[in-house]
Amino acid sequence: MTESSRPECVALLAGISAYLDGELPATECALIEAHCQVCAQCAVLVEGLRETVGLCRGVADLPLPDPVRARARASVRKLLDEVMGT
Amino acid sequence: MRAEYAELVRQAARGERSAMERLLVRVQEAAYRFSLLVCGHPEDAEDVMQDALLKTYQHVGSIADPNAFRTWLYTTVRNACLMKRRRHVGEPRHFESIEGEGEAGGGRERAIDLPDTAPRPDDRMMDGWIDRRLRRAIQALPPTYRLVLVMREIDGLSTREVATVTGASEANVKQRLHRARVMLRRELESYD
Predict the structure, then answer these.
(1) Which residues of A22-36 are buried (b: 16+ CB within 10 A; e: fewer)?
(2) CA 20 to 30 Å from A38, out of B33, B84, B132, B188?
């Protein structure tokens, strides 16, 4: 993944994370999308970052390993049994 | 997510045991995930998890604003990770501070020192949870960027919450997140 050094690309890429986070107004989103139609380098970059963000966010949905979850539940029950009673 | 935490905190503060139990389990899982991904030591993550459990239990009855619970939690967990790191000073082959040299140091941060590559039982367990390439790529990020990336992308904190936990401005958090994404992408591509 290589970032273009062309001024129009640099200007566009400054807002790319806001674009991926849905924080840009529709007009600016349209500018980025139009640019990516004609600039393969930026299109690859945007897709690569989108995929990376998706990979990370996917981790949030993964339950922790069973042994870790079991230890967490056991610790909580032990503590609450001691302080609150059963 | 913030609203879910806030509601659990309200119920737990009223003494509802089931809410307290759900809150504490969730807190421990968040602490473990954060510690593992930001600090990189499964054995420390267990201690950080326990620390989060006790501190949350002690703190939950005195929380004035349940909506601010997550920033309190992540600040607490981050501090516990820092304490673990300090205890490791002097030990061989361990990690850098989770936040490098300072908030305004832009570029001064050093990448972490990756642990030995021989698989340990903890590593095998982690490989079954999170893709090994992604975990290694996250751990290869400079500490300040890794911290922001994990809290924002994986733990789902808002930009404002991350700014509160790190003491950085929201603009700075956004800038670091963008750089972290670009660095992470490059790191992942380097494994191809």
Answers:
(1) eebeeeeeebbeebb
(2) B188
